[in-house]
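Comment thread on ticket #2218

A.B. wrote:
> Attaching the input chain for the structure job we discussed in standup.
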Amino acid sequence: MKLFTTLLLGLAQLSLAAEKPNVIVIMADDLGYGDLSCYGATTFKTPHIDKLAASGQRFTSGYCSASTCTPSRFSLLTGSYPFRKSGTGIAPPNGHLIIDADTFTLPDIMQKAGYQTGVIGKWHLGLGKKGQGPDWNGRINPGPQEIGFHHHFLLPTTNDRVPQVYLTDSRVLNLDPSDPLWVGNKRPSPDHPTGKSHRDTLKMDWSHGHNGTIHNGISRIGFYTGGHDARFRDEDLADKWVEKSNEFIETNKDKPFFLFYASHDLHVPRIPHERFQGVTPHGFRTDSIVQLDWTVGEIMKTLDRLKLTENTLIVLCSDNGPVMDDGYQDDALEKLGNHKAAGPFKGGKYSVYEGGTRTPFITSWPGTIPAGTSDHIVCSIDLAASLASLTGTPLPEDSCLDSIDIIDSLLGKEGAKGRSNIVSQDNGNRGALGLRSGKWKLTEHSKRKAFNTTVKKKLMFNDVPIHQLYDLSKDPGEKTNVAKDHPKILARLTAELAKIKADGRTRP
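C.D. wrote:
> Ran it. Output below, let me know if you need it in another format.
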């Protein structure tokens, strides 16, 4: 009887695997629209991602919902615009989990559909309870497990913020109890080395803000002590993400799996592995893009080896647009040359202009998704509703408030339409929103200040009107504000944005 039951269970798992594809979401960090050779980069190549694009749909109007890390990731996992929830700005080192544990999330959708769920790479969504934050020397919860992930192997925050350790099974990996980890906002002692006090020892100097605790010759935001056996080397991050991603795929090869692979490569401090240093003419930033491309290739090789390629949907996107000088002197700006990181678009990371939130967006599922280029408006916030539709998983009425089912567009089906509009925001504290509706783009800068208008200069504010209007069909670079020429359209879009904010949801 036990053998018969085991056989039935095995057959059920095989049937489920055949009906539902594996899903891998690869979210790059700070990758701009023009940062891949399949999107127009000419001074270096990204052959593995190019191959992915050539096998499926390459979107020319793919978006994230925010132009910084934490809010963009929040919307991917919750399916809701981050401006609807306070506290979704850039998470600090000791920040608490900003997604409430009772939220029905994207990984919850996949769990309910019978998938094994995993997240590997950069987290930066906070950890622990509100008012407490993470217990670095104990079990850290709530965290990924409490919002739907069976497995996680993470960089807890982002690598320019302390601590430089891995998190798995809700604990810091390789932590020696006799060398406890302490993380804080203030210098723990007068003799604690920092980027200010020991600047002459740094192997990569800081330009602004990143001058706290030094690790691996690089100073970071915040302070920490202890946990020396648990600390990693920056240069090894990409290799570790590939190792752990391949382990997850191998372990779950006989059942449907959902993997959120959150790359860190382009985010500061940009320290690619030694074998990638100097492979491009633009310094460590684009060297890191080539490293990202390698990681994608390694994951694709694993799928090929396990004969899973034709049963796996891959989505590649970015959390926001590009930035050059983001706190370290790594020559990204000085060696930029003619490379157009944001492609033809204005702005970058921190900006609600197109360069801040229009990014590479690729879907691949050989044998199911046809090869081609799509101009449909799609967004990473829509993966929740779209994958719920793909797997036949009902969404609770009060969940995924702004996630739209665009699965037909993602699969390249004829007759699909994509989104009709998309709202984007900055990191949440500068009062900037953007609304693209069809060919029109409205920007709303409530503080009359626009940040990082061009990635070819150091980060700065520009004075702007509260509302600007652009016709993207004629002016994709948002060079000419036509608000005065089209007062009725300006009024319509302003009202549309106000309604989206007031209604509290956009999902039907």
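A.B. wrote:
> Thanks. Noting for the ticket: The chain has two domains: 19-172+228-410, 421-503.
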